[in-house]
Design a protein that fits this description.
The complex is a heterodimer of chains A (172) and B (81). Chain A is 36% helix and 14% strand. Chain A has 172 residues and is an alpha/beta fold. In chain B, a hairpin with a 5-residue loop joins strand 3 and strand 4. The chains are: A alpha/beta (172), B alpha+beta (81). The interface between A and B is medium-sized, with 18 and 18 residues.
Chain lengths: 172, 81
């Protein structure tokens, strides 16, 4: 249906998850697409909406995430290679989520992966449109002022209209 | 480096992971004139697939891409438009 071949490609993403691990794909794909000259809109809904808050508080836990590798981001190489067999029963212990979150952040930093805040800013610098879901704001009690500047607010119909002309549409 | 290339900008992308090499090259290409070259050195093997894809999508020219003996990857892109 694309009539004009000179029109830039378009990417429409729904970001529905707000954990640290799932915060990455929308911003990575969004910034990469924008770097390729694409037009990008990321629609943040449900828990994904928290990724638009001024301070990103995304956390992660291996609880319910059985595929998450449990490795240490410090110490000698041999130590870092160990995959720790943490019993599931330990994962609900208070503080475990905070530890898992800081370990993942440290691992990503050590490996050279940008932080969520950096990737989000990169998206905005490259012209990616970040859109917040009005209904989720109503449900969770978020205000426009809670979000970083530049965020637009819209609903399902507005996203669908945009996505109808997209070359790539993803639900994360 | 046998080619006689006049490079306008040199980028150090060593240590950067996806998507930053692509982001950095996209930002840098805006700052050079059409026809000018950017040379970059990266360590992420992902650039071997991503930089050619970026060049095709953005309409720029990947002049050369090579793996160096130290496992670093060197590439040169030319701004086309």
């Amino acid at each position: 249906m694309k009539s004009d071949p000179t029109k830039p490609k378009r990417l429409a993403i729904i970001a529905s998850k707000g954990t640290l691990d799932w915060a990455y794909p929308p911003f990575i794909l969004g910034s990469a697409a924008a770097a390729m000259g694409w037009e990008v809109n990321i629609f943040f809904t449900f828990y994904g909406l928290t990724l638009l808050k001024k301070e990103v508080t995304a956390a992660v836990t291996p609880l319910g995430n059985p595929a998450m590798p449990m490795k240490m981001p410090f110490g000698p190489d041999r130590f870092q290679e160990i995959e720790w067999p943490i019993p599931v029963a330990m994962m609900p212990i208070p503080g475990f989520q905070a530890i898992a979150t800081s370990l993942m952040k440290q691992t990503f930093k050590n490996k050279g992966v940008a932080s969520i805040e950096e990737l989000r800013q990169t998206c905005m610098d490259l012209g990616v449109q970040l859109t917040g879901c009005q209904m989720t704001m109503d449900v969770f009690g978020f205000e426009c002022e809670d979000f970083i500047p530049g965020v637009e607010i819209a609903g399902a119909a507005a996203f669908l209209e945009y996505a109808a002309d997209a070359d790539v549409t993803l639900f994360v | 480096m046998s080619e006689e290339l006049k490079v306008a900008v040199t980028l150090d992308m060593r240590g950067l992971l996806c998507p930053m090499p692509v982001v950095k090259i996209a930002q840098a290409i805006k700052d050079v004139e059409v026809g000018e070259l950017i040379e970059a050195t990266a360590t992420d093997p992902g650039v071997l697939a991503d930089i050619p894809a970026w060049a095709r999508s953005s309409g720029n020219d990947l002049v050369v891409m090579e793996k160096l003996d130290n496992k670093e990857i060197r590439f040169v892109v030319r701004r086309v438009k």
